[in-house]
Amino acid sequence: MNLNDSIFFIIGTTIILLVVAIQQIQADEMVHEFKNPSFSGVGTSSHYLTIENQETNRKQAIKDEIEALRDELEREKTNTVEARFMRNLTSRIYANLARQIEASLFGEETSKSGSMELDGNTIEYEITDEEVRVTITDEDGNVTEVIVPIGGFTF
User: Fold this and answer.
1) Would you call 125 exposed, middle or buried from its count of C-beta atoms within 10 A (0-12, 13-18, 19+)?
2) pTM, whole model, 2 decimals?
3) End-to-end CA distance of the chain
4) Smallest Cα–Cα separation from 110: which of 100, 118, 96, 95?
5) How far apart are CA 118 and CA 126, in angstroms?
6) Among residues of the chain, what percentage have pLDDT more than 90?
7) What is the pLDDT of residues 71-94, one digit of tens each?
8) pLDDT digits (tens, 9 = 90+) for 129-150
9) Which residue, 44, 153, 148, 62, is CA-closest to 105?
10) Local structure of 138: helix, strand or coil
11) What is the DSSP string of 17-78?
């Protein structure tokens, strides 16, 4: 290999390396784009809809949680020992009153008429040969009348 061939070889290799290097250096223009649709405008409506749905669901979840806590507090308040005792006592008192009223209306020692006060309501009864008439007058003066025919029932 002579000197001319060596120079051509070096120059040729250099040119080939420069061409390859220049091909590798070529690049596209750099463009900045926002990823958030609020800034770029691409998909903005679906982005806003998603945000609105998330906010609405969260608000509803908070309302449901508050309502559940209120219900739980109400249950705890009505399930105390005192509240259960009062419900049981009231139930027994009303049952006893009903039994006494039934005995005075239909028992062996019946009275033909009578009256009593119960929670601000006036209960009056009258027994005739054909019917039993019960009149209930509430605190506001509203009157409810129940008429039971005596001869219509056979046991």
Assistant:
1) buried
2) 0.37
3) 139
4) 100
5) 17
6) 15
7) 999 888 888 888 888 889 889 988
8) 788 888 889 888 899 898 888 7
9) 148
10) coil
11) HHHHHHHHH--PPP----SSHHHH-TTHHHHHHHHHHHHHHHHHHHHHHHHHHHHHHHHHHH
